[in-house]
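Figure S4 source data
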Amino acid sequence: MNMTQTSRFQGPALRKAATLSALAITVALTLTACGEKKGQEQSGEAPPPPEVGVVTVQPGTIALSTDLPGRLESVRTAQVRARATGILLKRVFTEGAEVKENQVLYRIDPAPYQAAQQSAKAQLAQAEAGLAQNRATVARYRPLVAANAVSKQDFDAAVAAELASAAQVAAGKAAVRTADINLGHTTVTAPISGRIGRSMVTEGALVSAAEATQLAVIQQINLLYINITQSAAAVSELRAALQSGQLERAGKGEAAKVEILYDDGRPYEHPGRLLFTDITVDPGTGQVSLRAEVPNPRGLLLPGMYVRARLQQAEVQNAVLLPQQAVTRGGAKGDTVLVVAQDNSVAQRVVKVGESQGAQWVIRDGLKAGEKVIVDGVQKLRPGIKAVKTVPWSPKGQTAQGNAQAASAPASAASR
């Protein structure tokens, strides 16, 4: 067999061997890749445990308080109104300033009242002159009538004329007094001491005594009232707490001491006192209107402001405060929280929830000192997760020191 024939028979065999070799390599690579993937799955690390924010339970004595919302009102308010009709000539006070009682505020054109005063004085002088003449006549007739030189009738007429003149003098004096008062009304003074608001009229305006034109308002704000509305049952509880000594009294009186808070929650520097006098129950709503009074020496509080009066009512022993989102209210098992054990496992715990304290709940039972309650990160928990990573929970915007205090101090939580 020559070389040409030999190569003719060897070509297909070589091509077949090459194909088989390529298939073998492909299968080997595939098996190797599958083996490596399976090995990675078997030897690879598990995903890290989810991170949750927790607070550490620290039971203690919790002071319960009640917040009573209300609006501030000045103790005394006086409307300055016109008592004389005329053109307003001048305003002699600064708007928003402190004024004293009887301080001059406005001046009204006095010319018409000065003329009326002069006319009344002239009429009085005329009446006094007539009285003097009639008195002289009576004095002259008295000895003559005794000597029958003047008739009894003429003497009686002279006496009557004297009495009429005396009445005219009295009327003239009253007219002069009225004219003086009306003239005095052209100078408008402050009826009380306090802070005066804006002027409701300007120079040149016509004010009327008949319409009692309002000129300004003066309010005393060194002591303010807080008008509060409460249910009759709540007021009865407050009275009972005061009588039992659970509420702190303001001084030696019957008023309860209260803490005043601004609408943003900041405490006011001076405590107030809750008054129980002059209260009535609305028969339609069952609500009671009562007042608290608060000193305002620096004028920081203003009438119409919204504030809260906080009363310390009682103390709860061995209780815990938890943030709102830590407590699930009204579940199938009742009120529950999620507790992280020492092995970082998570368990549901039924707790007894008491009163609310602002944004927190008072937990009366169900937790022990040192236990960690999940506040944040519950959404990260999935079925099959056996452990979690705990970090101290901190409210938004609170410092690290404040966070530590929040974890150990009493706080409440509302239902989620």
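Figure S5 source data
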Amino acid sequence: DIRPYVNVRLLKDRSKQQKAQLAQVITQALADICNAPAAGTHVVIDEVDRENWAVAGELVADRDS
């Protein structure tokens, strides 16, 4: 029995609706592609503050300024 666990890390400021839609799409993709049971699929969304995420050595919070 396959029970997937997916961990998604995003910058903060996504709406509850966006996160719900993302969880639904990921769950459906695993069901369609991997035949994973939707009822057993776990999607965890970790939200990260902009000052705790860097791209190319620069904090995202500093890029926004």
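The first strand starts at residue 5 and ends at 11. The chain has a mean pLDDT of 94.
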